[in-house]
Amino acid sequence: MTGRDPAVVGIGATRFEKGSGRDELDLATEAILAACADAGVSAHELDGVVRYGVEQVREPELCATLGIEELTFLAETPSGGGGVASTVGLAAMAVEAGHASLVVCFRSRVRSKGASYGADPNQGGRPWAKAGALLGGPQRWQHPFGVASPAQEVALIARRYLHQYGLDDDVIGHQAVAQRDHASRNPAAIMREPLTIEQWRDARVIADPLRLHDCSLECDGAVALLVASSDRAGDLAQPPVGVASYAFGSHPIHTQLADYLATSDAYSGRDDGQRGIARRLFAGSGLTPDDVDAAMLFDHFTPAVLLALEAYGFCGPGEAGPFVAEGGTRWPGGALPVNTHGGSNGEAFVHGFNHLPEAVRQLRGTAVNQVEGCEVVLVNGSPTDPSGAVLLTRGIR
Amino acid sequence: MNLELVPRPAPWAAGREFWEAAAAGELRIQRCGACGRWRHPPAPRCAACHSADARWDPVAGTGTVFTYTEIQPPVLPAFEDDVPYVGVVVALAEGPLLVSRLVEHNGVEVRVGLPVEVVFVPIDEQLTLPLFRPAGGQPASSGPGSPPSPTTTSRSR
Predict the structure, then answer these.
(1) What is the tens place of the pLDDT at every residue in A209-250?
(2) Among the four residues A3, A139, A151, B23, which has the most C-beta atoms within 10 Å?
(3) B120, β-bridge pairs
């Protein structure tokens, strides 16, 4: 140990709800203060901030609100949900390089259906519906044809995947069911009613094969996480969670759908970003997919989980469908419990950021659906954005 | 389709040639002027040889359904009266993939691999959409899956 090994030392979140009536700064500061309280540090001591590119809360207002004396490291990840794990990777880099010793990563989101305010399309409601009548960006190759929402884009990707491997639509439904079962025991979850596969099948179709329950819960909420150097981590309130490895990569993004489909491995035999991230992630850790006890996989829509199971080497090509259908991602009993907090269709959708504290709880042994002997957890970002992944461990290795 | 609400490409945005060709009843796709590689969506450089030379070559307008989705609400306001409708990615015979929409598919099982052909649907004087229908398609019929008709569906809200 150099004293600069990165560790996750604190997690915090607001309540997840619809129509909170609060703004992003308000929610962010609550989550950050909760993470600081969890770690046993003062927010005055924070010296680094990492956020999503689409985050509305910016550093100056955060510093002013929390009385942060001086930031020595600031970074943002490209785009939105691709940034989940990459924020931790950037914070870990900063700690290892000595640029900071207590970095907060966070995401704050006010996106209930009723909440729509401010000049930025990412403030409330549906950003895709606010692209406007005159399109200068890549949306101009989709929106005039009626293909606009992320659900519609992921539906096209999912249909191709199901066709490629001759899988029934039900396989994605089984992941929706597994996550809702996990959520049913999570007091923080918005959706605690269990779901059956029949209910999944009968639910409203959003964009075939996606049903209502494959979609994330648009809500208000914020989540924060603290990364500290190992020389500080030992003195703090919680047992440290190690950052064993992190990797970044670029995917073709979903708003250039034709490009996404043309360049992704599952569709044309070429490599895609997620597989590259997986290779670098495991190579940098000395761990293999077999060592991973649980995974928190980005799930803006449930098919993303199946794609990740294959990209990260937990299943062979086309095998994630049967794996999920046979309960492989369920707790208890599954070979690889996935999204044990209930994920984005059960707990909440905070752009995937709420997957990180669940990984930490699993490694501390405090999760509601606790995986026995959980030593290693993988967390990834969206497969339809520039993205990244991280391997977290019980204790610093 | 509510024609007045159909989002349209900004006149200043690159790729006008695609829309101008469609308005003239032609499907043209950008192609590298140096190495001949097709590219869609259009881009200022060839990803293979980095040449900035580009030409817009006509394509046959035939291909197959690469993937599809039957779309239900929520949709953009322009398409609210159309649901359900089928969004597609078409693999053109020449190779490039194109996001579009399937029309005139009554009685046809939509599937990956379905042969399709382009049909041009005028929205207004500036914009014509290259949509696709099953190849060897029947003449237009009314009802779901029929081509949107400006004369019968145009209205403001």
Answers:
(1) 999 999 999 999 999 999 999 999 989 999 999 999 999 998
(2) A151
(3) B130
Structure tokens at A366: 């405090």
**What digits encode the pLDDT tens for the residues A379-397?**
999 988 899 999 999 999 8
Chain A residue whose CA is closest to B73: A206
CB neighbour class for A59 (10 Å; exposed up to 12, middle 13-18, buried from 19): middle
Average pLDDT, chain A: 92
**How many A/B residue pairs have CB atoms within 8 Å?**
130
Q: What is the reported pLDDT for A134?
A: 87
> Would the CB atoms of A134 and B8 count as touching at under 8 Å?
yes
| Closest residue in chain B to residue A209, using alpha carbons only | B69
Question: Where would I find the H helices in chain A?
Answer: 24-39, 59-66, 84-97, 150-165, 170-183, 197-202, 230-233, 257-263, 265-268, 273-283, 303-311, 320-325, 343-346, 355-364
Cis amide linkage into residue B84, ω under 30° from 0: yes
Exposed/middle/buried for B12, CB within 10 Å: 0-12, 13-18, 19+? exposed
Contact B41 A157 (CB under 8 A): no
Torsion of CA B64, A260, A123, A48, to 10 degrees: 170
Whether A345 contacts A174, CB under 8 Å = no
Q: Does B70 touch chain A (CB under 8 A)?
A: yes
